[in-house]
Amino acid sequence: MTQPTDIRRDGHRPLLLHLHTALELAASQIPVMPLRAGKIPFGNCRHCADNACGGRPNMKNPGPCTCPGPCHGWAAATTDPDAISSELWRRAWMRASAVAYHPGGAGLTVVDLDNTDAITWARENLPATQTVPTTRGEHWLYLGAMQSANAVRPGVDIKSTMAYARWLGPGTGTMTTLPDAVRELAVSKPETVQTAPQAITMPGPARDAECRHRTPAYLDRGIAMAEQRITQATSGVHSTVYRTFLAVLSTHGRCGCLTEAHIARLFTAAQAKGETLRHCTDAWTNARTRLGL
To answer: pTM of the entire structure?
Structure first.
């Protein structure tokens, strides 16, 4: 990846800097998107609120939504210069605090090392590659895409498909092909990063309960909407997590269709917003208690 040409802010506002950076990255086939303060994507527009439009489940199959704005979190990332320069996107760039990109869409994987201990671990266990300094640690960039995963070990996240990373420059070093050592991190997480402890195992379906799920995609869409609601919370994260858990359980909790994998997805989204495992467990338990589950 090449370093976008620097532009002075002078009196031109951050719009010019962000837009220029985004267009240069897009020209290199790196899908980009704007981020608000706090490294948060822009929320869905009123037509796409709560994924009423059907959402964009993945980059290869974006679904029925044709919203021209930067909606749907990571799925908004694009290499289309016309979209990036459009009036709707320009409004977003004017309010943006940073440019982000979709690593998986560019065929990349970012190992996000959040502190010095994580960096030391990476230097001892992963092959050297292109590195980019961050506020608290480093991004290690590998050539190749994989499943994203949070908290694969203390201070280490993997950002690739269905995720975004902040653009902080090209870094230094030569990019290495994605090694098995990184892929294996997403397969087996350490026990200290549990997301679905035994205390929240779901009960089986009630005898007279009627499954509301017309297709498996109905449940998956509900979980995806819940993840998005948590991810887009800008304040009151504690209460948002609890209300989201309550909504999921009220809709899906009595038919027995929720699995540990679904619960883990919700816990992962909450922990990515800074919630502790204990708070997630308490919020889930309280929601179940309130609903009599």
So the answer is: 0.62
